[in-house]
Automatic annotation (TrEMBL):
The lineage of its organism: Eukaryota, Cryptophyceae, Cryptomonadales, Hemiselmidaceae, Hemiselmis. It comes from Hemiselmis andersenii. Residues 107-120 have a biased composition (Basic and acidic residues). This is Uncharacterized protein. Residues 1-10 have a biased composition (Gly residues). Residues 1-32, 73-127 are annotated as: Disordered.
Amino acid sequence: RGGGGGGEGGISRSIHPSLLHEMPSVDLSPSEQALRQQLLNSATLTETAKGLDELIRETGAAMSRHRKIEFEEVAPQSAPQEPAPMTPEEEALRKAQLEAEAAAQAERVEKARKERENAFRYKGTPTPLLEELRPRLQMGPIPVNDFMQQALAHPKHGYYMQRDVFGTK
């Protein structure tokens, strides 16, 4: 399999003879022909013992070249210049801007902290049952069983005492 065919920057193997009969005769541009050749070479390489390793190395090298080209397109053409030294007025203005930004950030943090603290507080009118449960809740968490027992069966304010759930009234 394979042979000594060569290609520029591509995988250097020739097309396997079994693949030649599968290639339709279509007029392709040179770049399309190169792509087809590379794909066929890749398919041939995967059948060889070390083909996959070579394919991985060459793909990695191609990706490296592509990243380098992209970086060169994005990177500035000249070397970065040092910023000009600031005058005392500019330094004072910049310092004032930084202090204002820091104060605004601290204010936003404090506001968010207060909102988090107040988010879990009941904001509606307290019900009689809530007034009964509040002292117990302030001591700490209570088991769900205890809470539900009070909410459902409290002698004055429980759900069962407020509604005719059993059809007796």
